[in-house]
Amino acid sequence: MKIIVTSIFVQDQDKALKFYTETLGFVKKHDVPVGEFRWITLVSPNEPEGIELLLEPNNHPAAKEYQKKIFDGGYPATMFGVADIHKEYQRLLENGVNFTTEPTKMDKLTLAVFDDTCGNLIQIVQQ
């Protein structure tokens, strides 16, 4: 068994698609209508056959509450790995990304946290 898709709740799929592709640099893999929403998955440009990130609409009340509580609590919804966190931090800053935590060394890794503008905090990590 292996992970093939992981999801993140988003408030607006179109806004999320734009942010995750144009700002973060992910690549759209699937965009399929499913009722009033869409099955939108993204992949890393370096791993087009890798794990997909599903931009899951938070239309269910439990999803909205969960997303709000973890955001308000300062907890990242997910984590992305980067090769050079300081370079990625600068690139994202230049693209207007709002960081809540600047690159911080923690034992053998360095992490930073930013707001994805779609209701989530996202952590980037260099191991």
UniProtKB/TrEMBL annotation:
<dbReference type="InterPro" id="IPR004360">
    <property type="entry name" value="Glyas_Fos-R_dOase_dom"/>
</dbReference>
<dbReference type="Pfam" id="PF00903">
    <property type="entry name" value="Glyoxalase"/>
</dbReference>
<dbReference type="InterPro" id="IPR029068">
    <property type="entry name" value="Glyas_Bleomycin-R_OHBP_Dase"/>
</dbReference>
<protein>
    <submittedName>
        <fullName>VOC family protein</fullName>
    </submittedName>
</protein>
<feature type="domain" description="VOC">
    <location>
        <begin position="1"/>
        <end position="127"/>
    </location>
</feature>
<dbReference type="InterPro" id="IPR037523">
    <property type="entry name" value="VOC_core"/>
</dbReference>
